Amino acid sequence: MKYLIWLVIALAVVVWLQRARKYRHAYARKQKKEQVEAMLQCAQCGMYFPASESVSNHAGAVFCSAEHLRRASF
């Protein structure tokens, strides 16, 4: 009977650890999803691209590359 109680306790601990790991992974995936970057549209070609890759002119128009910025200034 004593061994049966220890077996039930060990099983409960294993199940608890598995659930904790599952929730930790779900939380990490949720945090990763929240780090979505804004997308901008190029004033020259209309293509959408990440805001971190943008190039802008003095008027505030955004472009996907320095080449498109140069083409728009002529």
Can you give a write-up of this model?
- This protein has 74 residues and is of the alpha+beta class.
- The chain folds into two domains: 1-36; 37-74.
- Helix content is 53%, strand content 14%.
- It has helices at 2-33, 66-72, and strands at 39-41, 48-50, 55-56, 62-63.
- The longest helix is centred in the first third of the chain and has 32 residues, at 2-33.
- The model has no long low-confidence stretch (mean pLDDT 88).
Topology:
Blueprint: H1 2-33, E1 39-41, E2 48-50, E3 55-56, E4 62-63, H2 66-72
Average residue-wise pLDDT: 88
Could you describe the largest sheet, including whether it forms a barrel? 2 strands, antiparallel
* Morphology: rod-shaped
Strand order, main sheet: write it out: 1-2
Radius of gyration: 27 Å
Question: Domains counted in the coordinates: how many?
Answer: 2
The low-confidence parts are none
Total number of strands: 4
Percent helix: 40-55%
> Helix/strand-derived class?
alpha+beta
Instruction: Provide the β-strand percentage band.
Output: 5-15%
Order of helices and strands: HEEEEH
